[in-house]
Specification:
This protein is of the alpha/beta class. It has 2 domains: 2-199, Rossmann fold; 237-430, Rossmann fold. Helices cover 45% and strands 14% of the residues. It contains 19 helices and 14 strands. The chain has helices at 10-21, 33-42, 52-61, 71-75, 99-110, 128-139, 159-164, 176-185, 187-191, 201-232, 236-244, 265-278, 284-307, 336-345, 358-361, 374-378, 391-394, 398-404, 419-424, and strands at 2-6, 25-29, 65-68, 80-83, 116-120, 145-149, 169-172, 196-199, 316-320, 349-353, 369-370, 383-386, 409-412, 428-430. It has a 6-stranded parallel sheet, with helices on both faces. The chain has a 6-stranded parallel sheet with strand order 11-10-9-12-13-14. Strands 7-8 form a two-stranded parallel sheet. Strand 10 (349-353), helix 15 and strand 11 (369-370) form a beta-alpha-beta unit. The structure holds uridine-5'-diphosphate-glucuronic acid (UGA). Uridine-5'-diphosphate-glucuronic acid binds at residues 123, 152-156, 212, 215, 219, 253-255, 257, 260-262, 264-265, 324-325. GO terms for molecular function: NAD binding; UDP-glucose 6-dehydrogenase activity. Its EC number is 1.1.1.22. Pathway: Nucleotide-sugar biosynthesis; UDP-alpha-D-glucuronate biosynthesis; UDP-alpha-D-glucuronate from UDP-alpha-D-glucose: step 1/1. This is UDP-glucose 6-dehydrogenase.
Length: 436
């Protein structure tokens, strides 16, 4: 089997590398010459994802994975072409911007000279697959092809494992021929008995949005329960465990925090809200989730200020973690983007440390002092705030933390420490939804 993967962003590069690991010949194609040169000549991975560099290196060496800027070359002999280009939120109306997807479809049509399965891997609104088919037919009436939707369910930071050992694979493919090609591509997953669901195109497209918005709703639910816990003296950690052990609810995605961020949940919740409104079937739950989450990110700075006595003018706050979650350098829609500037506006000086995100963060913040390490960050600060649950922040030497901070004050927006332990250690400690 041979495929072309259009787009060497996060999804394209991870999917391409993983398919090649499955034994498929993969040619990744991108218009960005520098990116392709870097990948081809120096094995330079443009994103941070644990394990991806090794996977790319070994499959490139084995001759199964290659990179080009020439789509024609990439498509020569390909059984399938995956479209994995960006679908950012369109400015102004929140709809997904599909211009990259449709441009890719037009170019694919030009180079099609045998039966080809055209797969949308990018997260695309319901109806995009049909439009891709229409565009290809219009551009090349003689083309022999099927359009398939194959959404990804990869989490940044664990994307390779998510691809190799998924809970399920969803494939919107409506012809036997297309299904057969997809079955071949995912042959390895059949061997480990992964559920593989074949559906209609629109259904597959909607599954992706329904999955992400459901997870965003689950997080938002527990975040609101956390707020209630603080008022009534309950513990959100125990509530999450208590409800999550019910198999119908499940334990995952019930960690209260500063609000969800990242490149997917904020964008996808908004896009589904717009689609539903356009079709006259508004999703009021998701509309509410979007607004609660936006407010929550803003409210977190207030929580910090209140805990520090209501006035942070002239105080130095040490912030650990800037990315939207650990094991990534991704800052997109990170809660820190709301919290850090709000603390600055309130008069605080911010010192920050993030293991991977500081380069990206520097593009967003002004007047933040970046530290060399977690301990360097907190030296002489009035308080410590944990914004992202990187593993290295879970195991801080608390005696050292106490000696470095001006006063032992820790605001833990990810609940990575235990309130009782913190009290025993002599900290003034503020978790989320737990007794402090
Ligand atoms: C998410 C989905 O989990 C993937 O299945 C999906 O493929 C991906 O979007 C996508 O559409 O491409 P990702 O954005 O990488 O993956 O990150 P998550 O681990 O889902 O976290 C998203 C946000 O929710 C983060 O800000 C995280 O801190 C927050 N979160 C997550 C919580 O606040 N509590 C939780 O219990 C879980």
């Amino acid at each position: 089997m041979r495929i072309a993967m259009i787009g060497t962003g996060y999804v394209g590069l991870v999917s391409g590398a993983c398919f090649s690991e499955f034994g498929v010949d993969v040619v990744c194609v991108d218009k960005d010459v520098r990116k392709i040169d870097g990948l081809r000549e120096r094995g330079e991975i443009p994103i941070y994802e644990p394990g991806l560099d090794a996977l790319v290196a070994s499959n490139t060496a084995a001759g199964r994975l290659s990179f080009t800027t020439d789509l024609k070359e990439a498509m020569a002999g390909a059984d399938a072409v995956f479209i994995a280009v960006g679908t950012p939120s369109r400015r102004g109306d929140g709809h997904a911007d599909l211009s990259y997807v449709y441009n890719a479809a037009r170019e694919v049509a030009e180079h099609m000279d045998r039966y080809t399965v055209v797969v949308t891997k990018s997260t695309v609104p319901v109806g995009t697959g049909r439009e891709v088919a229409r565009i290809i037919r219009e551009a090349n009436p003689a083309a022999d092809f099927d359009v398939v939707s194959n959404p990804e369910f990869l989490r940044e930071g664990s994307a390779i494992n998510d691809f190799m050992r998924p809970d399920r694979v969803v494939i919107g493919a409506e012809t036997e021929r297309a299904q057969a090609v997809m079955r071949q591509l995912y042959r390895v997953l059949y061997l480990i008995e992964t559920p593989i669901l074949f559906t209609a195109l629109e259904t597959s497209e909607l599954i992706k949005y329904a999955a992400n918005t459901f997870l965003a709703t689950k997080i938002t639910f527990i975040n609101e329960i956390a707020d209630l816990c603080e008022k009534v003296g309950a513990d959100v950690h125990d509530v999450a465990r208590g409800i999550g052990l019910d198999g119908r609810i499940g334990r995952k995605f019930l960690h209260a925090g500063p609000g969800y961020g990242g490149s997917c949940f904020p964008k996808d919740t908004l896009a589904l809200v717009k689609t539903a409104q356009d079709f006259g079937a508004p999703l009021r739950i998701i509309e509410t989730v979007v607004s609660i989450n936006d407010q929550r990110k803003k409210a977190m700075a207030d929580k910090v200020v209140q805990f520090l006595g209501g006035d942070v003018t002239g105080k130095t706050i040490a912030v650990l973690g800037l990315t939207f979650k650990p094991n990534t350098d991704d800052m997109r829609d990170s809660p820190s983007l709301d919290i850090v500037p709000a603390l600055q506006r309130a008069g605080a000086t911010i010192r920050a440390f993030d293991p991977e995100g500081m380069h990206e963060a520097a593009k967003h913040f002004t007047d933040v002092l970046y530290a060399e390490s977690a301990y360097d960050c907190m030296a002489g600060a009035d308080a410590l705030v944990i914004l992202t649950e990187w593993n290295e922040f879970r195991a801080l030497d608390l005696d050292r933390v106490k000696t470095l901070l001006k006063a032992p004050v820790l605001i833990d927006l990810r609940n990575i420490y235990n309130p009782d332990d913190m009290e025993a250690q002599g900290f003034r400690y503020s978790p989320i939804g737990r007794r402090s």
